[in-house]
Amino acid sequence: MVLLNNNMDKKIQLSPNSLNLFLECPQCFWLDKNLGIKRPPPYPYALNSTVDELLKEEFDTYRQKKIPHPLLAENNIKAHLFENQKLLNQWRNNLAGVRYFDEDLEATLFGAVDDVLEFGDGKIAPLDYKSTGSTAGKVYDRFQLQLDTYAFLLEKNGYKIKNKGYLAFYIVDKSRGFIDRLPFRKEIVEIDTNPADVYEIFKDAVVCLRNSTPPAHSFDCQFKKWLDGAKTFV
Fold it and tell me: Could you say which of 3.90.320, 1.20.120, 1.20.1070, 2.102.20 is the CATH number of the domain covering 7-229?
């Protein structure tokens, strides 16, 4: 049995990805955060990261010119890009992000948002860029949790939120071929955010980490199934 001492003294900082891992499998989460035993990493999505960087540059150009981004105008979204570029750069930084320290839990929740929309009534909403080679943009549970967490963090930092989140999908248009360029079809999806749900997930995750022994794997954890299968050959 794994025992971990002094868990209460451990500095806990969690992100939307951390919360998603906790929901997927508490034991994988506990091992990752407490012992540094991580799941095997997925294939590196270097192209997605590059597209993300280029989209930030593109959206920032429209922000600096103070003109609506075409994706918002074409989809009749009555909002403009968040104007404070310096603050947005901080929020985008993976080492800084939008942060909230809970004094009762003595733990921090943070997230690096791609962009923020501001509406006429002064309320704001998170915007996240997604690039995909699939035929259509799909809202996965982890995307919902991501936007819920961003909304929670923005609200905790004193902003009035719209209870909406936006996913800007850039979908590879395979019908147009390659020809030295990768054409994209663009669409934006509006979803309702539920920031009120985030705190309980955050709290449960912190309590889990401060246990001296790991919880059980989730029943459907694929890594546990792989491990169980491997043990049959040992």
Answer: 3.90.320
Torsion-angle region of 177 (φ positive above 0: left; ψ -120 to 50: alpha; else: beta): left
Q: What is the pLDDT of residues 32-86, one digit of tens each?
A: 999 999 998 877 676 788 889 999 999 999 999 999 999 999 999 999 999 999 9
Residue 165, CA distances (Å) to 90, 176, 183 in order:
20, 30, 26
Phi-psi region of 46 (alpha: psi -120 to 50; beta: other; left: phi over 0): alpha
d(CA 134, CA 125): 26
Instruction: Tokens for 228, please give them.
Output: 């169980």
Task: Record the pTM.
Answer: 0.90
